[in-house]
């Protein structure tokens, strides 16, 4: 076959080839569209009445139940990447909690979500560049409590609930000021047996024990070192150290702790150790080990814990 014949053959095949490629591309696009999620599971619930404001750098949203209410106040400290308006998100666990209160006919507390932004940890003022929020939140809560007391009356109980980053924050706040809160619910909290200042070998061993995602663990390590500068500062905020201060405390908050076994942040090991130690110290503790990943939550038991009448 000469060169001219080859050119004619190539020309005849070009159009069918282009048509075939176009059909394959269209089929691929159609398949991708067909197999993509067609929607998002949302919770059926009546959202709380939400009003928001600021106190200095603290953003807050007050969420008042539309149905049966309890004379209690819950402070919600959100997870990383969220904000003060998270409580009414219909695709989040907070909506499930509200829906469960409504399904079970339980009186719902007023929930106040607090936020300093999308990423923050409560630590006392020290050497680390982002330390100091733990010193600020106490006076700000005093002012916010006074404002709410004037509007709705003094609550029967004050409680804390938080997930992931917020789970660590509620433990730091609640265990640092045990007389201030009656109950603490820490969901998939960032509790670790090893300091972020431990040796590389120790941290590698922790990754192997917990099955934590190395990229996620690096992010946790980096965030921690932005808020604490050394082991001494870490000991002032680590829940496994703070729990020991409850041994002789005249008033001790009840604890609700939960975590998924396959938490990719590696939080299960430390949270279980905290629950075990709290129970050994005689602290009223509910421990919910769950089969699941990061922030698997037992909604019904959490809803009951935050609405219990006793």
TrEMBL record:
<feature type="signal peptide">
    <location>
        <begin position="1"/>
        <end position="32"/>
    </location>
</feature>
<dbReference type="InterPro" id="IPR029058">
    <property type="entry name" value="AB_hydrolase_fold"/>
</dbReference>
<protein>
    <submittedName>
        <fullName>Esterase</fullName>
    </submittedName>
</protein>
<dbReference type="InterPro" id="IPR000801">
    <property type="entry name" value="Esterase-like"/>
</dbReference>
<dbReference type="Pfam" id="PF00756">
    <property type="entry name" value="Esterase"/>
</dbReference>
<keyword id="KW-0732">Signal</keyword>
């Amino acid at each position: 076959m000469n060169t001219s014949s080859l050119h004619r053959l190539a020309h005849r095949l070009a159009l069918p080839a282009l048509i075939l490629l176009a059909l394959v591309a269209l089929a691929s696009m159609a398949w991708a569209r067909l197999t993509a999620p067609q929607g998002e599971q949302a919770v059926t619930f009546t959202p709380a009445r939400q009003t928001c404001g600021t106190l200095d750098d603290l953003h807050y949203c007050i969420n008042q139940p539309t149905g049966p209410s309890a004379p209690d106040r819950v402070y919600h400290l959100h997870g990383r990447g969220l904000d003060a308006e998270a409580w009414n998100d219909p695709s989040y666990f907070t909506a499930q909690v509200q829906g469960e209160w409504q399904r079970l006919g339980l009186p719902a507390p007023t929930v106040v979500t607090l936020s300093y932004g999308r990423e923050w940890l409560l630590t006392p003022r020290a050497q680390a560049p982002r330390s100091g929020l733990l010193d600020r939140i106490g006076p700000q809560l005093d002012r916010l409590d006074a404002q709410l007391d004037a509007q709705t009356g003094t609550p029967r109980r004050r409680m804390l609930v938080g997930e992931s980053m917020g789970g660590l924050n509620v433990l730091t706040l609640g265990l640092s000021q045990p007389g201030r809160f009656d109950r603490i619910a820490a969901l998939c909290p960032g509790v670790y047996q090893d300091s972020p200042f431990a040796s590389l070998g120790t941290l590698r061993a922790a990754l192997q024990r917990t099955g934590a995602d190395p990229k996620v663990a690096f992010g946790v390590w980096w965030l921690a070192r932005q808020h604490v500068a050394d082991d001494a500062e870490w000991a002032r905020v680590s829940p496994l150290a703070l729990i020991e201060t409850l041994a002789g405390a005249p008033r001790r908050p009840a604890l609700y702790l939960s975590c998924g076994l396959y938490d990719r942040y590696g939080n299960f090991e430390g949270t279980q150790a905290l629950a075990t130690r709290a129970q050994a110290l005689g602290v009223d503790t509910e421990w919910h080990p769950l089969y699941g990943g990061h922030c698997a939550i037992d909604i019904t038991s959490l809803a009951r814990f935050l609405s219990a009448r006793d």
